[in-house]
Design goal:
Two copies of one chain form a homodimer. The first copy, chain A, is an alpha+beta fold. Helix content of chain A is 39%, strand content 20%. The first copy, chain A, is elongated.
């Protein structure tokens, strides 16, 4: 028979078991943390009607989308978890309790150019808080406390949640009469880390903006110091624009509330260069950087928006949320050797029977499982050496060999595969649920 | 602005939060049980190259598949988790340890005719054990012990795992010279529960099969009694065919081993009418029925196959596995009111601040979360009544209201929302992690 080559598409992550175990641990930690803050689970379809999914889309997104027909229905795969959330809230408005706090962890699809570390199928881990008509700014301050808990839970201490307010930027542009150029200017500012200050000034000037206006923009961008110093310097700029003033007030409150939420000073900072995309966010914006692994980029980003679902409903639904791109984050951190599995195997114990009658091995395995210990019985007919090698390769931490001698004596040895130590246990005691491994 | 109707496609399940919580609980129980038996996690892409995915498919499957082009690549969505497993094992053969035990829980896609209770996107929860060249029949006996644990864990006691061996049927057909009609006959026999014995005989006769051959087939199908009685009666049929004899021997051993695995007699039975599809399974086959909810159909099915990945590799990879169709099972059981959530809310506690300064509410929430208690703070500016209603609607079991009085006295009341009882707690003790709810 001629064979088909068993390949996986470029841009699609498929892991070997050892990496998959680590990936699942990260995913579970994120999910558990979201639940700790009382976010409700949501699971929407991966396929939606193209009309629904693209109600708002345009530009780059539309080009990248997986869109196809089945029968005469125009379908598309979701490219993020926000549009499905907007659809869901608009559709189920009358059946939800507000503020509606939901998390969703699921795969999304973007037909990006395939390159190393870029994925066409990837997990997003989102939380959003949606208000009915209004949503207290306290919610903007709670989000960083969720980010803080997630990143700590993932094992990192040295990270910074950077916060800004879009109104500051918008007000600034209004004050220098550059509202119509704001999208372009923001795009250039977003690159400052990569291309440097001089190049930013040059590119902005190329838009035909005058020097004193550029100076004003740059004096804003270049504000340095602690979060409090930055807020004071923003005040000192004395920009006479109501949008700017509102942004400054919101950002000042946010800093105060973030402290109330107990985020340590070293883990958050006002960063006036953060803009987060161009038209979606309206107030607070967040990015999160691992300071030892800056090359990873922002691991968790989001912000405040005025209206979640205006393409589907007249209801005003303001919200605030973040997204963590798990597939890329896992890929990068794994490549950098920056993450380790807490438990390298699924099985805690491998029971190796060297007898035909499996009664004793099965009874012990059942007793272990009832105590919440993942227990595997090696059921194939192999030499002891091959069975031990299997435990070794799967990094199973404990092994119990059960042969005729053990059955006769009523005593088994539990072998710790890391230390090599063996401890004796009475079979009857194990079967009765008196279980200790070391 | 004109609005797009926020609809979800027919055949795609999308749940309200209360149902989603229940669904997640079922999914987690299945996953935890699979892990208890030492199965490794696997997550393969939902999109595969159509050539790879359809290497084996044909007939009904091919018609139902979601297939489309992106650029000039011919793509398809997976329609089960077995084909991706075959691809994965063939592709990663050198990097896996055998027997390779994996579970996968994920969505699959079939463009079936839309009707109530039929889904086009649904979760399958699969386990498989794959051998390298050979696989001990003990593995066939372990699978029912996993099924048993899963179904018990889902809260059911009255269920039957029905087991059969395909070789018995194949051998029977060979012995009456009806090998070439076997697919057709099996298809008719599969319907016996629905159409009855007389209709089965009539339809088989319509294939042009003679009466004494039909009698032989029916005397096989109609064997009744306990599992042991059935095995004895099969022996007594004295069918002189080597395939039949092998099947009988395998089934007899399986019953012996299943008992060794501690499955109670009332939870398994030899059922000679089970065939499970037509060409994939080669030996043992399983189906599982909830006896109080027979209308649900088999909730968990599978069997033994000789060769997992022959379309991709020359390696012989025998395996045994099962699949649980979670989406349909959830839908049916929920409709029948046969499942209840253990925990109806994600949040265990709702903290309701009636003060501006959130220091105390946040400190208490943080202490609770550190103890693994999911805790939400109501952050919006509403009247107390509206806040209590929110807790009520989300069925959050405990509420703590924190107002000026509580801050002054240093004592809060923890309200049990089910009993209405309130117990006093010292704020400082809670903050210090001395947490009791009732």
């Amino acid at each position: 028979m001629s064979k088909t080559e068993p390949r996986t598409l470029a841009g699609f992550m498929e892991l070997l078991p050892e990496d998959q175990i680590l990936f699942e641990q990260m995913k579970n930690k994120i999910e558990k943390t979201y639940q700790k803050f009382g976010f409700l689970p949501l699971d929407t379809p991966i396929i939606e009607s193209a009309e629904v999914l693209l109600a708002k889309a345009g530009g780059e997104t539309e080009k990248q989308i997986y869109r196809f027909e089945k029968g005469d229905t125009d379908l598309a795969l979701r490219f993020d978890l926000t549009v499905p959330l907007a659809k869901y809230v608009a559709k189920n408005y009358g059946n939800l309790s507000f503020p509606f706090r939901r998390y969703q962890i699921g795969k999304v699809y973007r037909g990006e150019k395939a390159q190393k570390g870029r994925f066409r199928e990837f997990y997003q881990c989102d939380i959003d808080i949606i208000g009915d008509g209004e949503l207290s700014p306290m919610n903007d301050a709670e989000i960083p406390s969720v980010i803080y808990s997630v990143i700590k839970e993932l094992g990192f201490d040295d990270f910074t949640i950077r916060i800004n307010n879009r109104r500051l930027l918008n007000g600034l542009f209004e004050s220098v009469n550059q509202k119509e150029n704001s999208v372009e200017i923001l795009r250039i500012i977003d690159k400052i880390d990569k291309i440097g200050k001089e190049e930013v000034i040059k590119e902005i000037a190329e838009l035909g903006i005058e020097k004193d206006q550029i100076d004003k923009i740059m004096s804003f961008i270049e504000i340095t110091g602690t979060s409090d110093e930055k807020l004071a310097k923003l005040q000192a700029l004395a920009i006479d624009n109501s949008t700017f003033s509102q942004g400054l007030e919101e950002l000042s409150s946010l800093v105060r509330y973030v402290r109330a939420f107990g985020i340590p000073e070293q883990n958050f900072a006002v960063d006036l260069t953060i803009a987060r995309g161009l038209d979606y966010y309206t107030g607070t914006v967040y990015e999160t950087f691992l300071n030892e692994y800056r090359e990873v980029g922002s691991v968790c980003s989001g912000g405040r928006y005025e209206n979640l679902a205006e393409y589907y409903t007249d209801k005003k639904l303001p919200g605030v949320g973040i997204s963590l791109g798990l597939t890329r984050l896992f890929y990068k951190l794994n490549e950098l050797n920056a993450i380790k599995a807490e438990k390298k195997s699924i099985s805690d114990v491998l029971i190796i029977p060297m007898v035909d009658d499996l009664e004793v091995p099965i009874k012990i395995a059942t007793a272990f499982r009832e105590k919440g210990i993942n227990t595997e019985i090696y059921l194939n007919d192999k030499k002891l050496k091959a069975k031990m090698k299997y435990a070794d390769k799967l990094q199973i931490p404990y092994v119990i060999v059960i042969g005729e001698d053990e059955i006769q004596s009523g005593i088994v040895k539990v072998k710790n595969m890391i230390t090599g130590e063996e401890t004796e246990r009475v079979i009857e005691a194990l079967e009765a649920g008196q279980i200790r491994l070391d």
